[in-house]
Amino acid sequence: MTNGQAYGKHRIALLIPCYNEAETIGTVVEDFRAALPTAAIYVYDNNSSDLTAKCARDAGANVRLETRQGKGNVIRRMFADIDADIYVLVDGDDTYDAGSAPQLISKLIEQQLDMVVGSRLVDYDSAAFRQGHRFGNRLLTGVVAALFKHDLDDMLSGYRIFSRRYVKSFPALATGFETETELTIHALELRMPIAEVVTPYKSRPAGSDSKLRTFHDGIRILLTVLVLFKQERPLVFFSIIFAVLAVVSLLIGYPIVVEFLNTGLVPRFPSAILATGIMLLAFLSLASGFILDTVTRGRREQKRLWYLSVPPVSP
Fold first, then answer.
1. In CATH, what number does 2-232 get?
2. What is the DSSP secondary-structure string of 135-149?
3. pLDDT tens digits, 80-101
């Protein structure tokens, strides 16, 4: 394990996942070193084709390589490799405000939180958000808010502070940009104490291009939300399927039942079979929901026990 340097009594590690950020990574490392002078800074290069690794190393960061492509793969590697009390996760594109880091860390320590999210949606440059990104962010955050009951405004922020107990209990299954969604839902499902703090958000400097593909990554994030909803709330998920199938079955079968009661005949036998089959599938879905809900509860208890086995951040 690699140890974060002491920050008072807490060891803080700054984690920066990078892919082709040679234009900005040096500035990011220098700015965060000024804000957090005793924190250990780690840059994980994700197969960059430019001079990202060299620029980060020249700026004084500890540079590592993760060959599996995708931000989620990088975060999995960072969380596994680095040992610290507090983790600061930030992108290497120089859009997040380094000066806000002490405030975010202080909030996490003083309130003994497990995650503090730097929200970008209030204080940002007019050119920082493309219209599609801003709309997609609000849409996906709203979907997660409806499904998992939370009040975060910026679920997709890449600027986050974590406690050690969060990091060491996080399974990190995502591979790409959907990892922010997974980070949020993990905290919500274990009912961790979390908070959100408004931080300035800047435009990318000239020569630096965003790696986010609006529609492609937006669809991947939405699919991730649905998969996690099925995994973490199976009874609700399969109850919805049950309700849809049951309604379809009743719509198909109602006229047949009425005609049978009036005449004693079943003139549309294939439709009767179809309605019966759909209703059987509906109840099969409901039964699956009950079974998987029991499994999920046991899995959540195990994750909770592992989470509780790690000491909290002491104020």
1. 3.90.550.10
2. HHHHHHHHHHHHHH-
3. 999 999 999 999 988 899 999 9
**141, 166, 165: which is closest to 154 by C-alpha?**
141
> Tokens 């990011």, residue?
28
Contact 168/310 with Cβ under 8 angstroms?
A: yes
Cα–Cα distance between 309 and 307 in angstroms, integer? 5
**Whole-Å CA distances, 228 to 9, 167, 257:** 36, 18, 39
Residue 36 pLDDT exceeds 60: yes
Tokens of 161: 């502070």
What distance in Å separates the CA atoms of residue 217 and residue 177, rounded to the nearest whole number?
7
- Pick from 164, 147, 34: which is nearest to 97 by CA? 34
Which tokens sit at 49?
């084709």
Environment class of 91 (CB within 10 Å of its CB; exposed 0-12, middle 13-18, buried 19+): buried
The number of C-alpha atoms within 13 Å of 195 and in the hemisphere containing its C-beta is 16
CA–CA–CA angle 80, 14, 7 (5° rounding) = 110
- 6 confidence band (pLDDT: 50, 70, 90): very low
How far is Cα 249 from Cα 266, in angstroms, rounded to an integer? 16
Helices (H), the chain: 25-35, 52-58, 71-81, 101-110, 131-148, 164-167, 179-189, 214-232, 234-263, 269-308
Q: What pLDDT, in 10s, does the model give residues 43-68?
A: 999 999 989 999 999 999 999 999 99
Q: Which residues contact 272 (CB under 8 A, 6 or more apart)?
A: 253, 256, 266
The Cα 256–Cα 268 span in angstroms is 7
Residue found under tokens 């996490």: 108
Positive or negative, the Cα torsion across 143, 144, 146, 150? Answer: negative
Per-residue pLDDT for 209 more than 70?
A: no
- Two tokens, residue 154: 């910026």
**Residue 63, helix vs strand vs coil:** strand
